[in-house]
Amino acid sequence: MPRSGGLRTALRCLGEGYLAAGHEPVMIVPGPEMSDEMTPHGRVITLPGPEVPGSGGYRLLITGRRRLTKLLDRLEPDHIEVSDRSTLRWTGRWARDRGVPSMMVSHESLAGLLTVWGVPESIRVGFADLANKRTARAYDRIVCTTAWAAAEFRRLGVENLVEVPLGVDLETFHPSRRDHEVRARYAADDEVLLVHCSRLSGEKHPEIAVDTVAALRDAGVPAVLVVVGDGPRREALEQRAAGLPVRFLGFVADRNDVANLLACADVVVAPGPVETFGLAALESLACGSPVVVNAASALPEVVGPAGVAAEGTGAAFAEGVLKLLDRAESPRRAAARARAEQFSWPAAVEGFLRAHGAPARAGHPGPSASGASATNSVPAGSAVC
Fold first, then answer.
1. Domains of the chain by range and CATH?
2. Where is the Glycosyl transferase family domain (predicted)?
3. 307 with 281: CB under 8 angstroms?
């Protein structure tokens, strides 16, 4: 998943933290071909997996169940952590049969995704409940990163559920990245610079970002938009943005470049309605840039008073942008940074290790602020799928 955004970042930072705590993470991921390499965040084994049509490059480990079983048997992990609760739910049974503690991390709301995909409510609710019950029974622990994400499990009475927030790299994403020369590449001094940073796919609703610019300009606000990210919706978005000051940068590999841009934004927009945490929004706050988020998602819980929650329309998001701009610049940027500082990767790693029942090993103090923030995998002799 070379361009999988928040999930890739989370796995990398957790893996680095597990290493710092004295564990030996092994990440198993799908890719175009077989590979096995050591990285700063642990051992990464890539197994061939097909691309999901229309996903913008996502791959799944669905064609090599026998191969993955043999690999897990050979690795003999002390724990497993799984981040795909659709095609890899069977790994819970594998772990239970071998007495290996198991943990599933729910990175998405199944009910939310079914809503986005247009599944009728009469089918959606029953299907999501059945799948979530099976997931909860299959693993020793279910981890959700927000109360919003946990809600679909809690209402089913799931008891093996814990909430552990993710973190943000507070060094890379910092207000000091704000630079007039960088900002001048994208906006004039009298313009409002908006940034949208996400995969350009249907469930992210990136069209709302474009509609926000249109609504603001119709209201006489000189707003411009920079879109960071790529995906199957890009061509349609470029057509939608025709005649508007919208610039598409595509996928930006260098996280420093992303941080520079986020720090220069007046407001960042995060319109995805089924986000269960929203790392890009948190990175924006860490850079001192406030965020307008979709009220239907978990993001209001994450951004708190440092952002504004809006209904999922361009007009509502434009109103949210104006609310943030009405706040004095220095206090609104300080509030954004202060909110982000409540979410660190060392704290996230410690929470995940507690959920595993795998504390820092003897002789290792655990992840530090400098050691757990920038780079993919899980705990000592552990496998991450």
1. 6-167+344-384 (3.40.50.2000), 175-340 (3.40.50.2000)
2. 188-339
3. yes
Query: What residue has token string 């890719």?
Result: 31
- Worst-scoring range by mean pLDDT, 3-7, 183-187, 274-278, 320-324? 3-7
Percent of the chain with pLDDT over 90: 72
Query: 186-199, pLDDT tens digit by residue?
Result: 999 999 999 999 99
Neighbours of 69 (CB within 10 A): 13
C-alpha span between 337 and 351 (Å, rounded):
22
The residue length of the chain stands at 385
Dihedral-angle region of residue 35 (phi above 0 means left; psi in -120 to 50 means alpha; beta otherwise)? beta
The phi, psi pair for 120, rounded to 5°, reads -55, 145
Distances (CA, A) of 363 to 20, 147, 352, 359: 11, 34, 19, 12
Residue 215 burial (CB count, 10 A): 21
| Phi/psi-derived region of residue 239, left when phi > 0, alpha when psi is between -120 and 50, beta in every other case | alpha
Total-model pTM: 0.87
Instruction: Check: CB of residue 75 under 8 Å from CB of residue 28.
Output: no
Neighbouring-strand partners of residue 197? 228
Check if the beta carbon of residue 129 is closer than 8 Å to that of residue 88.
Answer: no
- pLDDT per residue as tens digits for the range 288-324: 999 999 999 999 999 999 999 999 999 999 999 999 9
Distance CA 60, CA 52 (A): 7
